[in-house]
Amino acid sequence: MRHPTEEPTLKSLKADKESLLISWSDGATHRILWRTMREECPCATCRQKRNEPPAPPPVFNILKPEEAAPLRATAMFPVGNYAYQVNFSDGHNSGIFTLEQLRDLGESENTL
Ligand SMILES: [Zn+2]
Which helix (H) or strand (E) holds 50? Predict the structure, then answer.
């Protein structure tokens, strides 16, 4: 458990087509794929979905245009001083990512 005053803060946020690029006050830089963020969405709906058994695969798998397009974020808004709300291109926008979660995602994504 880190002491709150030792938590790194955001230096800059940049977005590209596939990922979020984060620079931290302690010098670390992370790239997190939007897809990863969408899969790790912390909202109640997504948390519940992740706990359910996976649905059986469809007999026909016809992609809708919005599913074929690569998932990305369309907007990101600060929520207070320590969190960001992300609007994803699939229309989902109820996930609020804390800086701590972004840091954890960045660290796990970048050590793979
Ligand atoms: Zn969600």
Answer: helix 44-51
